[in-house]
Inverse folding.
């Protein structure tokens, strides 16, 4: 045999081995199938969810690890079909998007067969609804953080393309050692303006103010006149102003409560408005009362109102569970940067006996979503935390039973057309917060929660020892140079802020 023929034979043999391995990895095809008139137990549970056109494939597997192979056929009510076979239902991305576009406003019908111990079972078909309402978002941003209490450990701000499974870094704290990265907040899902806060030895408030520039403004983290840092931001829709709270935060651990581990509270907090053009902190005693704790501000979508929560200060830490926040609002004048003279109470803790936090008005101006707990505002540690909805036209409030569980729901936000919202929940295990989506229809009803899709979701979520928090939609990718931003933060240079007191 010549050297050339020998090389050809070796290559052929290798190719045959590779083909055998590939075909073997695809799993077997259904045969001798028995039928059960029950829905398949799949992970994630995507049965009867509603999705937008453009969402990444809803890959899943059988919840029971004893199943070896899953075979799934998806047919559109308006035509088209796709197929997946293997350990996961791993759909081709291009075929998936074509099927969704073809079935906008229709349904996808899933036929699931699964193999365990050599026996195939076919389950009752289920549906996924493809909404006519567009998502109007490229993706989402969020923070991923490990369970830690005393050390910041490794955490980061990230963005995720919702049409596929690609996650990219905005900034990791490995670039800013021993510091905590907080709350990446864009202006109404538009990342041309954003802000986030950094705690630690080189603390700072980092802002991208100009929509036509990549230049960042790095503000000094604290102002002595405030008595704290600039945290929990929310942009005015005009872009010049940004509301913040300033918080003196403490934490303690529960020793005798099985379902609660840690408590976070503020010994003091206030709300103020920051003018990005003049670097001026506008302090107004109407929303900075001495014996009250104002918190978690948010502007209305027309910019005419500033929402916030307020609670009578307690004796800390002994009376931490008596701190209960009401939801309020005050008028805001964009021309002057001044707030009005009267505060309206929209949800009163004296009537509900509960505590309100994280008010988030829908961008169409009709609703306001908030989190309700028994006390306090740091809702991720409260298993009783639920999402509530306030109708701003009628004043009626209701729990969002469509998405709430018996574990903590929080950190919610709307997409730009107010037909979708996202939130975090610990509904799976009570330990880690994950991102969920829901469709919000014209009648004000939410659809079944949809877990953020992953390529191999069971493997991904089992191995991930991080929580997602402060998620938000982003209309297009955030432009940021992580390396350069880390260096800017490590640099000692800061833009100074000044304070203007607006006393009553």
């Amino acid at each position: 045999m010549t050297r050339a023929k020998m090389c050809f034979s070796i290559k052929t043999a290798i190719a045959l081995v590779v083909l055998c391995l590939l075909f073997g990895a695809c799993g077997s095809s259904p045969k001798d199938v028995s039928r059960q008139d029950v829905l398949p137990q799949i992970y994630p549970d995507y049965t009867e969810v509603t999705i937008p056109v453009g969402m990444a494939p809803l890959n899943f597997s059988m919840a029971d690890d004893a199943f070896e192979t899953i075979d799934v056929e998806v047919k559109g009510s308006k035509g088209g079909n796709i197929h997946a076979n293997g350990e996961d239902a791993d759909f081709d991305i291009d075929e998936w998007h074509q099927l969704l576009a073809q079935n906008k406003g229709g349904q996808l019908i899933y036929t699931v067969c699964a193999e365990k111990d050599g026996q195939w079972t076919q389950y009752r078909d289920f549906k996924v609804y493809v909404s006519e309402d567009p998502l109007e978002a490229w993706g989402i941003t969020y923070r991923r953080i490990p369970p830690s209490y005393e050390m910041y450990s490794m955490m980061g701000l990230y963005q995720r393309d919702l049409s596929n499974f690609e996650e990219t870094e905005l900034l990791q704290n490995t670039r800013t050692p021993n510091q905590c990265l907080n709350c990446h907040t864009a202006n109404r899902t538009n990342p041309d303006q954003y802000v986030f806060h950094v705690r630690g030895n080189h603390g700072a408030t980092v802002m991208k103010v100009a929509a036509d520039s990549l230049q960042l403004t790095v503000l000094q983290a604290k102002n002595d006149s405030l008595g704290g840092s600039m945290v929990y931001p929310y942009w005015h829709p005009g872009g010049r102003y940004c509301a913040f709270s300033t918080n003196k935060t403490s934490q303690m651990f529960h020793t005798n409560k099985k379902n609660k581990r840690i408590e976070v509270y503020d010994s003091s907090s206030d709300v103020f408005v920051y003018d990005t053009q003049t670097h001026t902190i506008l302090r107004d005693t109407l929303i900075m009362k001495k014996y009250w704790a104002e918190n978690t501000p948010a502007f209305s979508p027309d910019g005419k109102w500033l929402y916030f929560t307020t609670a009578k200060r307690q004796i800390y830490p002994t009376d931490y569970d008596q701190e209960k926040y009401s939801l309020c609002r005050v008028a805001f004048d964009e021309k002057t940067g001044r707030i009005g003279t009267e505060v309206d109470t929209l949800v009163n803790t004296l009537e509900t006996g509960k505590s309100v936090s994280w008010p988030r008005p829908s961008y169409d101006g009709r609703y306001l979503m908030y989190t309700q707990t028994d006390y306090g505002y740091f809702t991720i540690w409260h298993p009783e935390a639920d999402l509530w909805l306030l109708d701003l036209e009628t004043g009626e409030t209701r729990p969002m039973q469509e998405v709430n569980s018996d574990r903590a729901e929080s950190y919610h936000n709307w997409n730009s057309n107010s037909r979708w919202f996202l939130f975090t929940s610990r509904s799976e295990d009570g330990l880690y917060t994950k991102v969920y989506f829901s469709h919000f229809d014209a009648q004000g009803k939410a659809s079944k929660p949809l877990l953020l899709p992953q390529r191999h979701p069971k493997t991904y979520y089992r191995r991930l020892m991080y929580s997602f928090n402060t998620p938000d939609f982003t209309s297009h990718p955030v432009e940021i140079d992580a390396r350069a931003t880390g260096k800017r933060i490590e640099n000692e240079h800061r833009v100074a802020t000044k304070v203007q007191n607006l006393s009553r």
